Recover the amino acids of this structure.
């Protein structure tokens, strides 16, 4: 395996982030180290990964919701784009942009909201790189261990000449190296590979020092992980290449699952905007480029970075499945709510329609309707009285005609 020969960062952006994350990892490591020395670093990295994923879970949930909203409004986006299709003048483009922004604002979403979790993860990844390549500077227990070993090394006659003559590659990578400075010696020791440790202990005759050998074995046990050393770069050789392949493979699997879910939902929605088509093409390219890029990065970085990235991808896969179920349930409840609201509006409309008097065109139960009813009732009673009066007049007429006829006889 290759060895990492980089000095502690002086980057003004990464330095505070690395310090903050270093405090978190150091706290986790102290707890794990008190329970077990063996594999304590890899356990700490996995626990740290879980904590980081838990902290950004609200952002991931927000991103998933925003992505779903973007899919739902695609028909409206397509309609706006069709409205301004072929219009390239600045005024038309400005109006289209304003309508798009209004649509995004109304639905509380953005086409760039999906980038936020990735943007947050990248500084964390590079900060973890700074921590893993400088473990003694960030881990209290590791610092004590390496300080004790450095003190022992500096008491060996000719140790400086051995470092400069036999391990010039390590010293060259460290940069400013001072064999009389304990921090430089600690930096040197922390960047030795397992093979170089054997060579260095033999050259300094420290392999016969029982106490030093025990300290070096403890250091190796802390950084060990199923036959690998977390402080070394895996490289392209076997078996180290397993980690670049795992890093790239889990990255591809995560993106493939996300793309498959999006495609399935897009088929359900139907309409697809020009903007979304471009995004789909970009995602297909990223699904190839990004996994390869991550594999290349892991090859040349401490193996702990690969462990962190693989663990992060596995947590992301589980999280994505869980969040999809949560959001599906939310959308189902929202759909039921919209259905109930629609049914209520329909019921009110039907009730309003059935309360219209077909003869008068007025709403039943209103003051006018009551007046109309009273008027109609009064007219009906008057008509009945007139009919009774007419019948009575006819009867009187008949009686008079009968009397006159009798008198003539």
């Amino acid at each position: 395996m290759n060895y990492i020969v980089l000095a502690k960062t002086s980057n003004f952006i990464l330095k505070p982030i690395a310090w903050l994350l270093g405090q978190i990892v150091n706290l986790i490591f102290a707890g794990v180290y008190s329970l077990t020395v063996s594999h304590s670093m890899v356990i700490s990295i996995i626990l740290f990964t879980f904590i980081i994923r838990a902290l950004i879970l609200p952002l991931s949930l927000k991103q998933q919701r925003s992505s779903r909203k973007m899919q739902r409004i695609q028909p409206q986006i397509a309609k706006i784009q069709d409205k301004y299709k072929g219009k390239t003048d600045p005024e038309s483009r400005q109006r289209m942009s304003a309508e798009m922004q209004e649509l995004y604002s109304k639905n509380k979403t953005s086409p760039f909201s999906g980038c936020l979790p990735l943007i947050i993860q990248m500084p964390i990844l590079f900060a973890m790189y700074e921590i893993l390549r400088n473990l003694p500077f960030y881990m209290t227990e590791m610092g004590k261990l390496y300080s004790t070993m450095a003190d022992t090394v500096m008491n060996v006659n000719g140790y400086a000449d051995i470092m400069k003559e036999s391990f010039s590659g390590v010293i060259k990578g460290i940069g400013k190296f001072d064999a009389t400075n304990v921090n430089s010696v600690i930096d040197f020791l922390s960047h030795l590979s397992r093979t170089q440790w054997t060579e260095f202990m033999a050259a300094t005759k420290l392999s016969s020092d029982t106490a030093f050998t025990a300290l070096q074995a403890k250091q190796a046990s802390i950084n060990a992980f199923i036959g690998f050393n977390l402080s070394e770069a895996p490289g392209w050789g076997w078996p180290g290449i397993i980690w670049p392949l795992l890093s790239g493979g889990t990255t591809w699997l995560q993106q493939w699952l996300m793309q498959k879910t999006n495609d399935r939902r897009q088929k359900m929605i139907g309409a697809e905007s020009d903007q979304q088509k471009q995004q789909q093409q970009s995602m297909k390219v990223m699904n190839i480029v990004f996994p390869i890029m991550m594999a290349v990065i892991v090859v040349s970085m401490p193996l702990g970075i690969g462990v962190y990235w693989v663990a992060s991808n596995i947590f992301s896969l589980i999280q994505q499945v869980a969040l999809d179920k949560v959001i599906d349930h939310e959308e189902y409840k929202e759909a039921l709510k919209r259905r109930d609201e629609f049914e209520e509006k329909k019921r009110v409309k039907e009730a309003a329609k059935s309360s219209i008097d077909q003869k008068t065109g007025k709403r039943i139960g209103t003051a006018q309707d009551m007046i109309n009813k009273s008027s109609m009732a009064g007219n009906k009673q008057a008509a009945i009285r007139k009919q009774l009066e007419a019948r009575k007049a006819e009867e009187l007429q008949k009686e008079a005609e009968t009397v006159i006829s009798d008198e003539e006889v």
